[in-house]
Design goal:
MetI-like fold; 170 residues; mainly alpha; single chain; 8 helices
Amino acid sequence: MEALWEGLREAIRLIATGDAQLRDIALRTVLVSGCATLVAMALGVPLGYWLARTRFPGRPIILALVNTGMGVPPVVVGLVVWLMLTRSGPLGGLDLIYTQRAMVIAQILISLPLVAGFTVAAVQALPPELPELLQTLGAGRIRSLWLLSKEAQLGLLAAVMAGSAPSSAK
């Protein structure tokens, strides 16, 4: 128990003194998580909207993959990324193992299903006739997407929040 209190005291001391190494680690964490969140949003929101609004033969399989991806533990994703990027792995020649890019890739793989899945739920919660109504009222494609996004804003916010903290969302 004493070791726990000693560790807490040391953490407070490092924060209070503005330790340079701690600051670098915190900034690196924000950078990696921010980049991964932006990419996951850029890919996951359109994917979620597309899955929510279109019907096609492979849709149930893709939705099952998204839902399965939402439940994969981050440790498993990290292991798969490591196996792919290690020297003997299929992407070992890219020399990405133990880099910030590898961390971004892993976080994208964790975040993308979360963002897409939450987006699907948010868009499916909207009335199905709303896009046609907006078109009838003269809204163009971009304006319709903007208005639909405003209607689903709480669900989209939840998607972004879930995607920005993937390891704590599990």
